[in-house]
Write a structure and sequence with these properties.
Blueprint (H helix, E strand, L loop, with lengths): L2 H9 L3 H4 L3 E5 H8 L13 E5 L5 E2 L1 E3 L8 E3 L9 E6 L19 E5 L7 E5 L5 E12 L6 E9 L5 E10 L5 E4 L5 E3 L4 E7 L9 E10 L4 E3 L4 E3 L4 E5 L1 E2 L4 E6 L2 E2 L3 E2 L5 E3 L5 E5 L7 E9 L2 E4 L3 E5 L14 H11 L20 H11 L6
Parallel strand pairs: 17-27
Antiparallel strand pairs: 1-15, 2-3, 2-8, 4-5, 6-7, 7-15, 8-14, 9-12, 9-13, 9-15, 10-11, 10-14, 16-19, 18-24, 20-21, 20-25, 22-23, 23-24, 25-26, 25-27
Helix pairs in contact: 4-5
Length: 374
């Protein structure tokens, strides 16, 4: 029995359990499940993330290019936002989101446009726990015609020597699509492991319109397509955090690494959904501020997601939720205090003294005028 076999035996569960937690996840399924980003959005650190290779590796952010109906992940400081990942190529006109091609795409994938040399596009997969990488498939075609080719490759980084999974392969412009599969599998992975798919411009930066899909197959704990993200909430309101797993899982929400239980907290808020994809905390206060993550579990064991921070604002004076803090909010609160309707369902106890009365209106008037939160 060689050292790699011994390590696999130590990392993985019994085969009967492993059969219940074998799954695949691709950059296309990540896109379809998570949706296109808004301009300026930061990436949620899900299973697949998208990076530029320079500046010590930096995550791409939400951008929207000319002529593309949805956002993508790109580099806003670079011409044409490259390196760029997204939107969706498809042979089906009603699903295709990218107008840039010199022949129609032959399969569904994502526009993968590398940056200007030497900046490459990196698609990085991160497992949530000890896993076995059983497969990696890349599908690629070059839909431009000025640049002669692009180059795709994949490696496994695990803290030791880098392992080549797919050697650098030229994707010629307008040639038939290529399907590339990793060699040397299975391989063990830990939370420190990364599958890194690289797309570069092959020496020419022009019209590298690569249609790409990359799919990993694993035996291991579930991963999150979208982990909990940073969230803000008003005092006394309901704060909501959520997770979207890539496969079947049970859920254990944690606050600062400590598992949560449904019901009242020692400081007065109430937790619900601690074992579901959506966590809600009602009656939040600054005592609820913390990092929240989820442990996703299947037959292969647990894996933790990235964490999102819950910030509870000092106060929320925009009572009518029109995006402005002004006299209209004062009029709204006066109506609610007088027994009128409250369509935004905001807590009218603005000064947090336990009573809903004229003092709440006076406190809001002070804040609208530039004073501090009560």
């Amino acid at each position: 029995m060689n050292s790699r076999t011994l390590l696999l035996c130590a990392l993985l569960p019994a085969s009967s359990a492993a059969a219940q937690c074998n799954y695949s996840h691709s950059i296309l399924s990540q896109w379809d499940l998570a949706g296109a980003p808004a301009v300026g959005a930061s990436q949620p650190m899900g299973a697949w993330t998208f990076w530029r290779s320079d500046l010590g590796r930096q995550p791409l952010v939400g951008v929207q290019g000319s002529g593309v109906p949805v956002g993508a992940w790109g580099a806003p400081d670079q011409s044409f936002f490259v390196p760029l990942l997204g939107a969706r190529y498809s042979p089906s006109a009603d699903r295709n989101q990218v107008p840039f091609y010199h022949r129609p795409p032959s399969f569904e994938g994502l526009l993968a446009h590398p940056g200007y040399s030497p900046i490459d596009l990196l698609c990085i997969f991160t497992p949530s726990g000890n896993s076995e990488l059983t497969g990696l498939t890349l599908r690629a075609e070059h839909l431009g015609q000025i640049s002669p080719n692009a180059v795709v490759s994949a490696v496994l980084e695990s803290g030791g020597p880098t392992i080549t999974l797919v050697p650098p392969t030229s994707i010629a412009a307008l040639a038939p699509a290529q399907t590339l599969t990793a060699t040397g599998l299975p391989l063990p992975m830990t939370v420190a492991s990364r599958v890194v798919v690289r797309v570069n411009n092959g020496g020419s930066p022009f019209e590298d319109w690569v249609n790409l899909d990359a799919s990993v197959s694993l035996i291991g704990p579930p991963v999150a397509v979208v982990p909990p993200v940073d969230t803000t909430a008003c005092p006394g309101s309901v704060a909501t955090l959520s997770v979207l797993p890539a496969s079947g899982a049970t859920f254990t929400w944690r606050r600062g690494g400590v598992p949560l239980s449904n019901g009242p907290t020692p400081w007065g808020s109430v937790v619900a959904g601690a074992d579901t994809p959506v966590l809600s905390i009602s009656g939040v206060s600054d005592a609820d501020e913390a990092l929240y993550d989820v442990v996703l579990t299947n037959a292969c064991g647990p894996g933790a997601t990235a964490a999102g921070f819950l910030t509870v604002l000092a106060c929320c004076p925009d009572f009518n939720e029109d995006g402005n803090v002004d006299q209209d909010d004062v009029g709204y609160l006066i109506t609610v205090v007088a027994g009128g309707e409250n369509p935004t369902n905001r807590d009218p106890d603005f000064n947090r003294d336990g009573n809903v009365d004229q003092d709440d209106v006076l406190a809001l008037v002070d804040v609208v005028a530039g004073g501090p939160c009560p």
